[in-house]
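Key idea: predict the complex, not the pieces.
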Amino acid sequence: MKNKKFQFNWYQANDTAAMERKLEKMAEKGWLLDKLTNWGFRYKRAEPGKVRYAITYFPKASVYDAGPTQEQETYADYCAAAGWEFVSSWGPLQIFRSIRENPVPIETDEEEKLQATHKSMLKTSVLCYGLLLAVWIFNLATRFSSIKRDPLSFFGSDRDMFFIFFQIFFVAYLAFFLVDYFIWYFRSKKAVERGGACLQPHTKIRYWLSMVLLAVCGLMLLALFSDLSVPGSKWILAYSFGGMILIMALSQGILNWMKRQGYSRSVTRGVHIGMAVVCGIAYAAGITFLGMWLSSADKLQESDVEIYVDSRGHEWEIHRDELPVTLEDLGYTVTEEDHCSYAKEVEKSLVLTHIDCAQRAHGDETQLPVIYYEVVTARWDWVLDLCWDLLYRVGERLTTSFTSEPLDPAPWGAEDAFYNRFPYGYCLRFEDRIIILDPDEKLTEEQVALAVEMLRYE
Amino acid sequence: MAREKFHTLTEQMYYILLCLQAECCGVDIMERVAEMTGGRVSIGPGTLYSLLESFQAEGFIRETRVEGRRRSYILTVRGKLRLEEEYRRILQQAEDYRKYGKGGF
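Result:
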């Protein structure tokens, strides 16, 4: 028979009444709280019985304390004198229990109770959630601006889309927690000023809403694993999750070790925060380097890539991909001496397919033009509309001298058209696709028209 | 903020100060107040702890002895004045009731 039991603590920190009810129910079932850990409640088996629990906040206590401070012990003595036995604490949160029928509550002044809770919350959950929210909002803003700069890469990658949904839902979860807490605090403050009691948070509503938001975040993270076709993505994902878990375990391990060694609160806090910052920077740098290393390693591993060195010693990658339109299709004769590279990259996601092609000759004596084009097709028209709109405005975001100029789409047989000298060239909107091409000046109008015609029905 | 807080004393604040006219250990205050009021007023240990801290910060009481974790306190002159002021306020309220409470309007 098991004598220990663990349950996650899903309650929000200011919902002490719900936690007390939970612990009392567990005591009736024969499980007494043994310890409150970082993650939840650890119980030990006992005789089932009626036990009263009281969860209070002692703002002077900190998670960085090696043990109970003298002030905390005095506080516990006062509680013991009133019949409350100290059970466990986590930072400022203190748990007591009593077997008396009607013990005097630990807090008999609602104003004092509210202020103790608020001070403790500001130091712990609010600070932590607030910092996380600031970091993730900044991160989200950076990602949105990168989407505006390169919408096709974003919509072409399921991973990027799932990750941004994860970020949005995670930010929503953090914001929900903070807004919910401050609404509770200000409404409780008003109630207390009017002589009433602190309000009871809506345990069930907030529990389910938090659970739904966190479940969606979890699903989005799981979805990241569904697209492992991109080279190196396995390693990046393994690093992202493994690294995060390792940092958390390391940080907790060091914190526990320092507390066991009896270091002072300020030393423990300094080391812990310093380590978190260093690990965070190392983690971010690690992802960048891993990405760079994998992309260079992948290039070398591609079996159909040859390296050609021209007479000036420059190295060129020669790809042999199958392109929908080639210089040969446009009437050119390509020989071995031209050292032509046929490169094609395909980004395919749940909503969009983006093909990026280039044919370029690297031979010393070559007279061949360069052709470069992209074809974008989408599952839904609105995605294509959105990409079109973002592409049109890309120039404005990159530099003012390369804004998009609307063109007459009729000669192309397109629905809409514009020209952007950098970074795209001609952008043509057809009913089911967007074609982007940046023709070499050596190409004639007829050749460009032929290329578009071929890409349109490719 | 503290001054605003103690503008009007709550019943619990009043009895803690009343109790501390004579030196008393913090932990014994709860029992003393319960005795003084026949159990009508009870002070929770958490509330007592934070009120003692606030009173000390405001200069209404001072620490007299520390024996291990037992700390004793006594009212200061400032605390006595505040208690008397509160007493007068309560008397005034009683007086007003006598004047106007029983058909005096």
